TrEMBL record:
Signal peptide: none annotated. It is a lipid-anchor. May serve as docking site to facilitate the association of other proteins to the plasma membrane. GO terms for cellular component: plasma membrane. Its main location: membrane. The keyword Lipoprotein applies. InterPro entries: MUB, Ubiquitin-like_dom, Ubiquitin-like_domsf, UBL3-like, UBL3-like_ubiquitin_dom. It is found in: Cell membrane. The lineage of its organism: Eukaryota, Viridiplantae, Streptophyta, Embryophyta, Tracheophyta. This is Membrane-anchored ubiquitin-fold protein.
Length: 117
């Protein structure tokens, strides 16, 4: 049966909130999962990804590549039969704008200097 082959996946965001769980076909690519995350990203979060390149998915301690499928990225040792796979979502911080004085000043004042004697 096709319904039995679907995999339950939820995405844990950096602040502990979740997106999902939802059922996905094992042939779904990581890039497709990232597009789903972008579409379902909660409104009102200070940090939000703009593109799929701003998102990294981690499963069982491994960063998943965009061309991998869910089936290729699964770790059967860590999964319970019929359980939900939790993938952690890491968002790349925004790049600093060199033209923006406010960000430039904040960067300069937050520097740490160490001296080794």
């Amino acid at each position: 049966m096709a319904g039995e082959d679907l995999i339950d996946v939820k995405f844990r965001l950096f602040d502990g909130t979740d997106i999902g769980p939802s059922k996905y076909d094992p042939t779904t690519t990581v890039a497709s999962l990232k597009e789903t995350i972008l579409a379902r990203w909660p409104q009102g979060k200070e940090i939000a990804p703009r593109t799929i390149n701003d998102v990294k998915l981690i499963n069982a301690g491994k960063i998943l590549e965009n061309n991998q499928t869910i089936a290729e990225s699964r770790t059967p040792v860590c999964e319970l039969p019929g359980g939900v796979i939790t993938m952690h979502v890491v968002v790349r911080p925004p790049m600093l704008d060199k033209n923006n004085e406010k960000l430039g000043k904040a960067q300069k004042t937050n520097r740490c200097a160490c001296t080794i004697l």
